[in-house]
């Protein structure tokens, strides 16, 4: 593996770690800001529902009940293009995130004891968190990272 490839992988890891922390914090606490991470051509498939464009993305996020995410794992891969295969900063990043999410005030309040979301065995089913998988393609534009593609799916 060359130094450029190592550098691209490390850069993708660092960028993704920062993105995951910022994205889910904003999603849970200040959702108005989340749509700023999307471009006019960005596309989302939210649990089977396709949405495109910043305004439609914003409307989708504002229609989702309050949430609390617990990230279990994430994995990232730099996507090098054929024009600049040895660029030190990859033009795009593929990011896969898995975790648990609770929606609605009652569910979030039921989880406020600080324990893992996954430890709630005796809660009403509506209060239980759901497992999710989310895949992003992030694109670097003028030293800012934007979401080009976003696919969210409940898996449990």
TrEMBL record:
A GO BP annotation: nucleocytoplasmic transport
Domain NTF2: 15-154
Cited InterPro entries: NTF2, NTF2-like_dom_sf, NTF2_dom, Nuclear_transport_factor_2_euk
Pfam families: NTF2
PANTHER family in UniProt: NUCLEAR TRANSPORT FACTOR 2
Name of the protein described by the UniProt record: NTF2-related export protein 1
Lineage: Eukaryota, Fungi, Dikarya, Basidiomycota, Wallemiomycotina
